[in-house]
């Protein structure tokens, strides 16, 4: 997310922030009209011809707003999977339909549990073994503590279509899982940054013993710890986004490091934010609980920090 496109990314981040500030629950047509769902769709198919680096900017802003929308499942994952299919008229037509907003697609990784944005999707692509398949499915909403996410259990029936992946299927599926992990890490980074900003603003105005609580050393140290955790998260997430956008042999390593650290750090940051807000931080009206629940779900979605650290440890055996 750094380099020659910094200015463009800053503008994209500003536009996304403004849109989500007006409508934090942006529905699919709003996302399509903004051009976000077609960011990685080729221009000749109605998309922007951009890369995952631009998608990552949107993921971060969605996390910052704790937005309840279907961007993760029906844009980030769906476009990633369809782009990984063997070239065909069917693939191009589906990409064009996604970019225009005419079709909303969801992606289910086996065992097809906790599938983002499957409920109400027009088509569901299931990654099963070495193939991407479509089938007659039953979608059952899966309630979770985080009300900003819409997850479901997908129960497949008779297979109706089989799609083939480009190149080695296992390599492509690993890349798709890395992509999902990094997208969630971007979301968690946005969650953490939003909570640090809200906390700093609050401790500047909250008075205790005739002075702002932000002037107390313990509060300063807590905010500094939050800032350091976010700075480390940003470095790891930036490296992972670059790896996903451009490919490379160490993409899975970068993705595992970003997912395990950033998603765990976000839970810690929001927890500190709740403490520093005092009693009001535990109330329904404060809104801090929304970010805490989102951060907690992100931590386990597409793999827990412990599972990624276990994978990373294999490098040293």
UniProtKB/TrEMBL annotation:
Its cofactor is FAD. Keywords: FAD, Flavoprotein, Oxidoreductase. It comes from the Bacteria. One of its GO terms (molecular function) is acyl-CoA dehydrogenase activity. Gene3D superfamilies: Acyl-CoA dehydrogenase/oxidase, N-terminal domain, Butyryl-CoA Dehydrogenase, subunit A, domain 3. Residues 181-315 form the Acyl-CoA dehydrogenase/oxidase C-terminal domain. Pfam families: Acyl-CoA_dh_1, Acyl-CoA_dh_N. InterPro entries: AcylCo_DH-like_C, AcylCo_DH/oxidase_C, AcylCoA_DH/ox_N, AcylCoA_DH/ox_N_sf, AcylCoA_DH/oxidase_NM_dom_sf. Residues 26-101 form the Acyl-CoA dehydrogenase/oxidase N-terminal domain. Belongs to the acyl-CoA dehydrogenase family. PANTHER family: ACYL-COA DEHYDROGENASE, ACYL-COA DEHYDROGENASE FADE28. This is Acyl-CoA dehydrogenase. It comes from Mycolicibacterium sarraceniae. The lineage of its organism: Bacteria, Bacillati, Actinomycetota, Actinomycetes, Mycobacteriales.
């Amino acid at each position: 997310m750094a380099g020659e496109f910094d200015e463009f990314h800053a503008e994209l981040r500003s536009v996304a922030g403004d849109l989500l500030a007006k409508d934090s629950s942006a529905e699919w047509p709003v996302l399509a009209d903004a051009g976000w769902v077609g960011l990685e769709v080729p221009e000749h198919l109605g998309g922007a011809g951009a890369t995952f680096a631009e998608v990552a900017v949107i993921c971060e802003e969605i996390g910052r707003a704790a937005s309840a929308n279907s961007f993760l499942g029906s844009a980030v994952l769906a476009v990633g999977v369809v782009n990984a299919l063997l070239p065909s008229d069917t693939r191009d037509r589906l990409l064009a339909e996604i970019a225009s907003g005419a079709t909303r697609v969801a992606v289910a990784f086996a065992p097809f549990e906790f599938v983002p944005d499957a409920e109400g999707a027009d088509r569901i692509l299931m990654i099963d073994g070495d193939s991407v398949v479509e089938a007659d499915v039953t979608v059952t909403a899966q309630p979770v503590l985080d009300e900003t996410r819409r997850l479901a259990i997908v129960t497949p029936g008779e297979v109706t279509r089989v799609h083939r992946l480009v190149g080695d299927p296992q390599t492509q599926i690993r890349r798709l899982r890395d992509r999902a992990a990094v997208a969630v890490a971007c979301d968690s980074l946005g969650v953490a940054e939003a909570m640090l900003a809200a906390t700093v603003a609050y401790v500047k105005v909250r008075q205790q013993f005739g002075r702002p609580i932000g002037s107390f050393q313990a509060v300063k140290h807590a905010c500094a710890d939050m800032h350091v955790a976010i700075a480390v998260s940003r470095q790891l997430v930036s490296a992972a986004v670059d790896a996903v956008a451009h490919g490379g042999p160490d993409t899975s390593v970068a993705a595992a490091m970003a997912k395990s650290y950033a998603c765990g750090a976000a839970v810690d940051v929001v927890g500190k934010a709740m403490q520093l807000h005092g009693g009001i931080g535990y109330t329904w009206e404060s809104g801090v609980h929304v970010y805490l629940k989102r951060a907690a779900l992100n931590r386990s979605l597409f793999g827990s920090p412990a599972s990624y650290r276990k994978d990373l440890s294999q490098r040293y055996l």
